[in-house]
Amino acid sequence: MQFTLFEAVIWSLVIVLAIIIVILIFYLKILRRNIRVKEKNNIKYREKIEKLLIEYIYAEEEGELLSKKQKAIIKQFKKGLVSKRKRIIITETFLQLDQQVAGHMIEQMNSLYKKIGLLNYAIKKLRSKQWHIVAIGIKDLRHFKVKRVRSSISKLINHHREEVRREAHLYFIELFGFEGLNFLDNLKVPLSEWDQILLLGEVENFEYDETLDLKKWLESNNDYVVLFVLNIVKLFNRLETKDTLIDLLQHKNAEIRIKTIDIITHFEILEAKEFIIQRFSEISDKEKVAFFKYLEKVAEIEDAMFLIEHVNNNNFEIKHRALKILKRVDVNLYNKLEKNSEDAEYNRIIDYLDVSYGV
Amino acid sequence: MSKKKIVLAEDNSVLSLLLKFRLEKDGHHLLMAKNGKEAIELIENENPDLILTDIMMDYVSGLEVISHVRNKLESKTPILVFSSSGQEEMVLKAFNLGANDFMSKPLSPNELSIRVKRMLL
User: Chain B contact for A24, CB < 8 A?
Assistant: First the structure.
């Protein structure tokens, strides 16, 4: 049987492809086997490390710096650190327990972390050229409360990757409390909303510190710092910042102005009322709405004429709040208002306030 | 005196090992569950004297474990729940379902040991 050239090429290709497929099948089989073996070894090593860690914690003997058993366990940990895979497992195991237990055990774990040399590996990570390694390094140092690397981490607060910055900021707040907030002095980059939520979550746990000077951060050139500190002012009711808050009503950033009105509303600062009324025509609609929310809390009968000016405002929310506040502060004047208008929204609000409101 | 049987349902393997070590030192017999499903199986088969359970677990949560013990098995076995910060509402639900006590994480194993002793009286 003789093949044409074309048929010969096709058959050769089929044979070559079949060989490649067979090789690939074997390769995948070996690969899968290796992954399974590796996973099995990891589980086995993890179990060993967990057991060693618990044994170390309970092997403490009164009056002795380190018991014989503890010294032997440290040796075993150190042996594992040479391998990167084992080092990762050891760190993960430490972190897994670090968040779950309290008191003396945490101190024991932190000291073990340093004794076995994991601390040096974490410090080395800070010098890595890969940003994610740097972030992991800071996270490890934060979890194990290593304060002596403060100056190295302070250089990372303006890192170009937000993941690294976030870890650096959390490091300062978690380890140094209110004092850690001083990193805000040198912050040149944005603080995202998520970052602010994370940081506020930590700040909430702080003991109240009256001596903390928030004013300097309310005057920061970094708008994100101002916004973040406004949240702290509200959280800890720092009313002594009142004058700075009134100054912030003229800030160039609209978001800060709105947030400031929100804080002023929270504190019910009366001095801000006249200040905003005088500038009312210049401020944005969002600020106007925020101001009417403030008036809901602080308006009095002498504000009735200002409210009358806005009962026909084009903005529904302003119109609604103006009528509602007017009814509260000066019901006689409110009753004298025309109850029927060409503006359907106005009629609906009046109807709501007169008939349904409060029912 | 026979050892008291305690079911410990906790998905953090290191923590559960640590608590097991501590409570076994106190002379208890620990039955370990990695999730709520395993905990329910152990409770049904072993009829423990005390149940310690985390609130958040895979497959079946701690709340479901409590509900199963109190409503389906109609058992009065004391239950202590572990919660993390931010799970206050879950703790209230746990009490409504019939939990007897709670401890928030991070845990103090010594405090747990005292509470366990008190609950087993």
Answer: no
In this predicted structure, the answer to whether residue A136 has a pLDDT above a threshold of 60 is: yes
- Give the model's pLDDT for residue A355: 80
**Cβ contact B12–A96 (<8 Å):** yes
Q: What is the pTM of this model?
A: 0.76
* Helix or strand holding residue A224 (H, E): helix A223-235
User: Residue A321's pLDDT band (boundaries 50, 70, 90)?
Assistant: very high
Q: Residue A190, preceding bond cis, omega within 30 degrees?
A: no
ipTM of this complex prediction, to 2 decimal places: 0.87
User: B106 contacts in A (CB within 8 Å)?
Assistant: 99-102, 106
Is A314 a domain residue? yes
Whether B64 and B92 have beta carbons less than 8 Å apart is answered as no
CA distance B105 to B100: 17
Rounded to whole angstroms, the Cα distance separating A134 from A127 reads: 7
Q: Which domain holds residue A346?
A: 300-359
**Residue (of A237, A226, A292) closest to A263 by Cα position:** A237
Q: Is B79 helix (H, G, I), strand (E, B) or coil?
A: strand
Task: Give tens-digit pLDDT for A140-150.
Answer: 999 888 999 99
Label residue A237 left, alpha or beta by phi (over 0 means left) and psi (-120 to 50 means alpha). Answer: left
Taken in order of first residue, the domains within chain B and their CATH numbers are 5-120 (3.40.50.2300)
Containing H/E element for A350? helix A344-351
